[in-house]
Specification:
By secondary structure, this protein is α/β, with parallel strands linked by helices. It is 48% helix and 18% strand. It is built from ten helices and twelve strands. A hairpin with a 6-residue loop joins strand 6 and strand 7. Helix 1 runs antiparallel to helix 2, helix 3 runs parallel beside helix 4 and helix 4 runs antiparallel to helix 5. The longest helix has 51 residues.
C-alpha cells in the first residue's frame, strides 16, 4: 500500500505541475500577444496620422520617435525570446574580450535613453573615475545592463528616479571584483515574487501597465552566470523601489586595443543589388541604401537578382534567405559561380539562429544580418568591408 500511495501522490503532483505549466504557457502567450499589439498600435496609428496629414515633414516628426521606440520594443521582445531559447539549448558562445566598464554602461544607457526621457525619469550615474576592465562579451554584457535599466524604467512611475552605480568591492590581486547596481524608486518587488524573480516567465505586477513577458530578468541571470558572476535582487519595502546587483570578476588583461573608428561622414558610393521577395522590405531597404550614397537595383526573386547583379556589376548584394522558388542559399551559390569572390554578399534575413549564420558562411555569404537590421550596423558593415 505504501508504494501505491507514493505512486498516487506522485501522479497527483505531476498532474498539478502540468496544470501549472499549462497555465503559465497560456498566460505567457496572452501576454506576448498583448505586448506585440501594444507596440503595433502606435505604429499603425502613427502611419495613419502621417497619411491624413499628407506626408508632411511635421507629421513625420511628431510620430517618428514614438514609432522608433515601439519598433525597438518589439525587437527587444523577439531578441529576448530567441536568446533564452539559445541559452537553454546551450547554443550561445560568449565572445569575451577585455572591455572598459564605463563604455559598456554608456551603450546600455543610450539604448534606454528614449524611454527614460519619455517618462521624465531622472537617471543618476555613479561610476569609477579610473578605468575598470571586465573580461566579457561586450554585446551580451550591454544586453544585461540594458535589460536591468529597461526593467527599472518600466516599473518606475513618471517623474521618478533610477540610479546606476559601480565600484570595485574587492581589490585583492587574487580575486578583484566589481559591483554594478541598478536601483529605482518604483513600487518594489513583492515578497512573494522575490524568490522567483529570475525564473523564466515570472511576471511582475500587472497593474503597472507594463508587466512584460518574464524573460528579461531570466536572461540577465543566465548571462551573468555564464560570465562567472552572480546577480541578486533586493527590496527595501513597499513603495521603496527595487535594487539589482551584479558581481563580476575584473579582467586580468590590459589589452584594450580597439579597431579604428568608422568615418561617419563617408558615403558608400557603391553599386548595390537587393534581392528579397518581400517587396516592401526590398523597397524600403533600397531607399535606405540610396540615402547612404549607394546606387541600387532591386529584384524580387533569385533568378532576377542574379541577372541584375551581373548586368549592374554590383559591388554588394543584400540577399534574403527565405525566398521561393530559389532560396537565398542557392542564389548565393549561383552568384559565386557567376561573379566569383569580387562581390560582397550579405545575408539579410529573419533567420538569426547560430546555425543559420554558420550555414550562410558555409554557403558563401560574407556576412549575416538579422532582420530588422540595425541601420547603423548595416552602414558600418558596408563601409568597413568596402573601404
Amino acid at each position: 500500500m505504501t508504494d501505491r500511495t507514493r505512486a498516487e501522490v506522485a501522479l497527483r503532483q505531476g498532474e498539478a505541475e502540468l496544470r501549472e505549466a499549462g497555465k503559465r504557457k497560456d498566460e505567457f502567450l496572452a501576454m506576448l500577444a498583448h505586448e506585440l499589439r501594444n507596440a503595433l498600435a502606435p505604429i499603425r496609428t502613427g502611419l495613419e496620422l502621417i497619411r491624413l496629414a499628407g506626408d508632411t515633414p511635421g507629421a513625420v516628426e511628431r510620430v517618428r520617435s514614438t514609432m522608433e521606440r515601439q519598433v525597438g520594443h518589439m525587437v527587444r521582445l523577439i531578441d529576448d525570446l530567441l536568446d533564452v531559447s539559445r541559452i537553454t539549448a546551450g547554443k550561445i558562445a560568449l565572445q569575451r574580450v577585455p572591455s572598459v566598464l564605463n563604455d559598456l554602461v554608456t551603450s546600455a544607457i543610450d539604448a534606454n535613453r528614449a524611454a527614460l526621457t519619455a517618462k521624465r525619469i531622472e537617471l543618476r550615474i555613479d561610476l569609477p573615475q579610473t578605468p575598470v576592465v571586465l573580461d566579457v562579451d561586450p554585446t551580451r554584457f550591454v544586453q544585461v545592463v540594458s535589460n536591468l535599466l529597461h526593467n527599472a524604467t518600466k516599473f518606475t512611475p513618471a517623474g521618478g528616479s533610477v540610479r546606476l552605480s559601480a565600484q570595485v568591492v574587492d581589490a585583492a590581486p587574487a580575486a578583484p571584483r566589481v559591483s554594478i547596481r541598478v536601483s529605482d524608486s518604483g513600487a518594489g518587488i513583492s515578497p512573494e515574487l522575490l524568490p522567483r524573480v529570475f525564473d523564466l516567465f515570472t511576471q511582475g505586477d500587472r497593474t503597472s501597465g507594463e508587466p512584460g513577458l518574464g524573460i528579461g530578468l531570466a536572461l540577465v541571470h543566465r548571462l551573468v552566470r555564464m560570465h562567472g558572476g552572480d546577480v541578486v535582487a533586493r527590496r527595501e519595502g513597499p513603495g521603496l523601489g527595487s535594487e539589482f546587483e551584479i558581481i563580476l570578476p575584473l579582467s586580468t588583461s590590459a589589452d584594450l586595443s580597439q579597431p579604428p573608428p568608422v568615418d561617419t561622414a563617408e558615403r558608400l558610393n557603391r553599386r548595390v543589388v537587393i534581392i528579397d521577395d518581400n517587396e516592401d522590405a526590398a523597397n524600403t531597404m533600397a531607399m535606405l541604401v540610396e540615402s547612404l550614397g549607394g546606387t541600387v537595383r532591386v529584384a524580387y526573386d533569385g533568378e532576377e537578382g542574379i541577372r541584375e547583379v551581373v548586368a549592374h556589376r554590383a559591388d554588394v548584394v543584400l540577399l534574403d534567405i527565405g525566398m521561393q522558388p530559389l532560396d537565398g542559399y542557392e542564389t548565393c551559390r549561383r552568384l559565386r559561380q557567376a561573379v566569383g569572390a569580387d562581390v560582397m554578399i550579405v545575408a539579410l534575413t529573419g533567420w538569426g539562429q547560430i546555425q543559420d549564420k554558420q550555414k550562410a558562411a558555409a554557403t558563401g555569404f560574407d556576412a549575416h544580418l538579422t532582420k530588422p537590421a540595425d541601420p547603423a550596423k548595416l552602414r558600418k558593415l558596408l563601409i568597413n568591408r568596402l573601404s
